[in-house]
Predict the 3D structure of the following.
Amino acid sequence: MLWCGPVAVRWFVLSVALIPIGWFASWVTLPMASQFHAMVAICFLAVACILGLLWSMGVAAIGIAILTESSDGNDRLYHPPDNQFYDWFGAFIYVVLASVVAVMPLVLLGAMLPRGLPWIRFGTTAAGWLLIFPLVLLSMLEQGSALAILSPRLLASLLRSPGPWLLFYLETALLVAGSMGALYGLPRLFPLLILAASPILVATAFGYFRLLGRLAWWLSERE
C-alpha cells in the first residue's frame, strides 16, 4: 500500500512541504542581533505554526485513510482523502485527542520525577505514547467518536489476542528506533543530509498507520 500512487504522491508532497516549515521555524533558534531580527523571527514562527498545522492535518488525513483501508484488509489505498484541507480536520481531531489522552498520564507522572532527569521524562512520555495511543485511537475509530476514549471490546483483545499486540509494539518500536537513529546519524555523516529528515519522518508516520491498520485487521479476523 505504501508504494501505491496516492500514498507515494502524498509522501513526496508532505516531505517537500516540511522543509520550508523547518526553515521558518529555525529562525527562532538564531541569535537576535536587533529588535528587527526578533520581530522577523516571530513572524516566521507564526508562518511556521500555520503551515505546520496544515501539514499535520494532511499527515493525519492520509494516515487515518491508510489505517482504515488496512483494517479492511486492502493492500492499496482506494479512497485517499480529498485535497481540500478543511476535510482533513476530522482525522486531525482524532489523532490529536488520542495523543493528548495517551501522554497526559505520563506527563503528570513525569512532573513527579526529579527535575534533573529530563531524558527520563521524555523517554517515559514517548514510551507511554507508543503504548497507549494505538489503543485510544482504535477505540475512537471503532466507536465512531473522538470522545469514546476506550472500547471494552478492544481492551478485551489485549487478553484474548496478546500475540498481535506484542508483535505490533515490537514492530513500531523498531520502526521508531530505526528512524530516530537515522535522524541522529545522517547529519553527522554529512550536514546536508539533514534534508533527509523530512522524508524519513513522513515515511515513519505512514508506516506506523499501516502497521496499526494491519493490527486492527488481524484483531477483527480473530473475533
User: Anything to note?
Assistant: The mean pLDDT is 85. Residues 35-71 form the longest helix (37 residues). The chain has one domain: 5-222.
